[in-house]
Amino acid sequence: MLSPQEAERELSIGAKLNPGPWIKHSMSVGLNAKLIADKIGILDGNQAYVMGLLHDIGRREGTKSIMHTIDGYDYMMSLNQEEIARICLTHSYPIQDVNTFFGKFDCTEEQKAFLSCFIKNAVYDDYDRLIQLCDAISLPNGACIIEKRLIDVALRHGLLGFTLDKWKAFLGLKNYFDKLCDCNIYTLLPNVIENSYDSLL
């Protein structure tokens, strides 16, 4: 797997290709994933950091919706980084159903079929789950309570048929990692209180 320094270099290249808030969001996901992994003790903090840092690396290709996951997978596979490539796909799916994606399906039918099969048949481990959680709680300047992020997404995308099930899946991830850490994960992460107080409107 790429080292933290190599992953940071890849993100820096991505920032030059497509500047935007996704860069600081990715840094936040990486840091938060490392802090939680280090607390758990049985996960590799550096591996969690690298995966979090590069989960959205497909955004280097431009402003896209579901295609950013496929672009990230393809790019990481081109570097023989299969574990990170996997995270590029799984980070959006706490429910293993491609149709629970919040956003547009700006991909071909063949790409959607590949993604659907991959997600349906993936056997998630705690790295998949950790990056899913950290993606859901990480703002560009730190973390916030998960409920705020879920409402933020709903305000932007509306309430869809699968929304409540996806909310329950994210809340389940939060409870799962609270138990693994033997504490509330918010106590481990930067800026939770400050970010959670900010208005969404």
UniProtKB/TrEMBL annotation:
InterPro entries assigned to the protein according to its UniProt record, in alphabetical order: HD/PDEase_dom, HD_domain, HDIG_dom
Record SMART domains: HDc
Domain HD/PDEase: 18-149
A Pfam family: HD
Protein's name in the database: HDIG domain-containing protein
